Amino acid sequence: MSETPQGLSAEEVRQRVAAGDVNVDASVKTRTYQQIFQENLCTLFNFVNVVLAVIVFLTGSYKNMLFMGVIICNVVIGIVQEIRSKRTTDRLSIVAASDVHVMRDGQRTEVPCDQIVLGDVIILGRGNQVPADCTVLQGTCDCNESLLTGESDLIHKSAGSTLMSGSFVNSGVVYARVDAVGAASYAARISAEAKEHKRVQSEIMDTLNGIVKFVSIALPFVGAALFCSTYFRGGGTVVECTLSTVAAMIGMIPEGLILLTSTVLAVAVVRLAKSKVLVQQLYCIETLARVDTLCLDKTGTITTGEMEVSQVRPLDPARREEAESVLAAIARADDDPNETSRAILNHYASWEGELPEIGRMVPFSSDRKYSGVVLADGRCYCMGASQFVLDEQGYQRVASLVESLAADARVLVLAAVEGFTEHNVLTGTPEPLAFVCIHDQIRATAAQTIQFFKDQGVTVNVISGDDPRTVSGIAAKVGVEGADQYVDATTLKTDQDVAEAMRKYHVFGRVKPEQKKAFVVALQEQGHTVAMTGDGVNDTLALKQANCSVAMASGSDAARNVAQLVLVDNDFASMPKVVAEGRRSINNLQRSASLFLVKTLMSMALAVLFILLPWNYPFQPIQMSLISAFTIGIPSFVLALEPNHDRIKGRFLENIIVYAIPGAIMIVASIMAVNILGHGPLGWSNEAMSTMSVFIMAWMGLMLIIRLSIPFTPIRIALVAFVICGLLVGFTAFGWLFVITPLEPLMWVVLGVVMAVSAVCYHLLFTAMDRWHTKRLDAMV
Question: Given phi > 0 = left and psi -120 to 50 = alpha, else beta, which region is 721?
Answer without folding.
Answer: alpha
